[in-house]
Amino acid sequence: MGGKLTRTKSIQKDAPLKRWRAAAAGQGPRYLRIVGFIERAIADGRLVPGDRLPPQRQLADLLKLDLTTVTRAYSEAKARQLVHARGAYGTFIAAPKVELAPLVDLGMNMPPPPAGLDLGDLIKRGIEQVLTRVDANLLMAYHASGGGKADRAAGALWLAPMLGQVDPSRIAVCPGAQAALAGLIVALTQANDGIAVEPLVYPGILGAARQLGRRIVSVECDEDGMRPDALMRACREQGVRAVYLNPTLRNPTAQTMPEQRRRDLALAVRECGVPLIEDDPYWRLADHAPPPIAHWAPECVHYLSTLSKSLSPGLRMAYVASPDESAQLRFLAAMNATALMPSPLTMALSTQWMHDGTAMQLLQGVRAEARARLQLAESLLALREQAWPAAGIHVWYTLPEPWTGQTFARAARAEGLAVSASSAFSPGDEDVRAIRLSFGGVTEHARLAQALRKLAGILMRGEDPELAARPII
C-alpha cells in the first residue's frame, strides 16, 4: 500500500490508484477501511501534508464501491482532521492539527480504538437491542449486587476460554477491576495483614492496599516471575495472608509467566493456605497464553478479568470467579460496603454484547489495532536492543544510561508527552532505568507516530541536566 501521492499533479500522475485497492480489503465498514488506510499512510510517512487524494468518483470506480461510501470516508477523514478539501482543486492531506491538550498520553493503559469498527454504531445498536428486551425503568433502578442471571451467564461466556465451563452462580459482576480489588482485599485480609506482590506491580493494588491499611510484601522474582520458594518464606516469616499476581502480559513488564511457574505457584499457595488474587486483564489479548493459575488451584484462586483493558474502560465492567459460594458471599458483602452494583445500563450493554457476539468483534478489532501499534512503536523506537512483546497494549522500555525513569519522564513531559516512570510500579518507589509506554490512549496513528518520534529524539540526544533537576508536578 506504499507510494506517496504527488502534490497537485494531474490525476493521471498521482501515485498509482491501484495501491488504494488494499484500502477496501479487510474487515469492518468499508468507509472506515479507507480512513484507516489514510491514517496509517500518514503515520508511516507515505502520505504527508499537501499530498492530494484521488477524486472521490475515480476512487469509487477503482474500488467498485458506491460513491456514497467514498464520500462518507472522506467526510470522516475530514472530521478527524486528516484531510482538508480545497473545492475544485481536490482533497489534500492536512497539516498536523494543533493540540490544545497539554500532554499526549502514553502513560494510561487502555485498549486502542478497535480496528475496522464503528464504535458509535455498535453502542447505538447495542442499546437499541437492550431496550427491546428490558424495561427502561429497570435500567434506572437498583439491582442485586453481583449482577443478574443473564449478566453472570455473560461473565461465564467471557471467562470460558480461560477457565473452561464456569458455573455462573460463582461469578460476580463488578463496576471495574479496581473496585473488585478493593472488595477482595477487604474480604480476604484484615488490617496490617501482608499481601505478597512482585517487585514491579500494578499501581492499583499498591494504592488499594495502602488505603485499606494492609502491608505490601515484595517477593523475589526471577525471569519467570515470582519465586515459589520466596513466596513460601514470606508466608512463614512476614505475615502474608494473600497473594496478588498478574501473570499474563504482566503490568508493567509485559512478560507472560510460563506454565510450569504457574503450576509451581499453585502448589505454593495451596501449601501455605493463602488465597491468591489472579488479576488477568490481558489474557484475551495474548497469543497462546498458558492456562491461568486458577486452573491448577481453583479452591485457592479468586480470578479477576476486566473488560477495561481488552474492550473499553467506558464499560466499567469486571468479572470475579470465586472458589466457592462461601467465598463469593464474603466478597459480595465487602463490595456492598463500597460499590453496591455496576451501572445497570452499561452492565446490560456488556451482557448484550457478550450474548450477540459483538464483544468478540470488539476484541478482534482491539487485538488487530494493538498489534499494528506495537509494530509501529517497534519500528520507531528500535534504537537499541530491546525485548518487545508480540501482543498487548504496553511495553516496558529499558532506558540507556544515564536516564532513570523519573528523569526521562521529566524530559518527555517537557516535550508534551506523558509516560509512566518505573517508580510508579515499585512498592518502595524505586526509580530504575525503565518506563512503561502505553499505546491505546492516542486515537490517531499519525499523532501516535509523532509522539513516538519525539521519544526517539529524546533518547538520541541524551539526558538534560536542567530537566533532571526539575520536580515532576
Automatic annotation (TrEMBL):
Transferase listed as a keyword: yes
UniProt entry keywords in alphabetical sequence: Aminotransferase, DNA-binding, Pyridoxal phosphate, Transcription, Transcription regulation, Transferase
One Gene Ontology term of the molecular function aspect: DNA binding
CDD domains in alphabetical order: AAT_like, WHTH_GntR
SMART domains for this protein: HTH_GNTR (SM00345)
HTH gntR-type domain boundaries: 28-96
Superkingdom classification of source: Bacteria
Family statement drawn from the similarity comment of this UniProt entry: In the C-terminal section; belongs to the class-I pyridoxal-phosphate-dependent aminotransferase family.
Record protein name field: PLP-dependent aminotransferase family protein
Species: Dyella choica
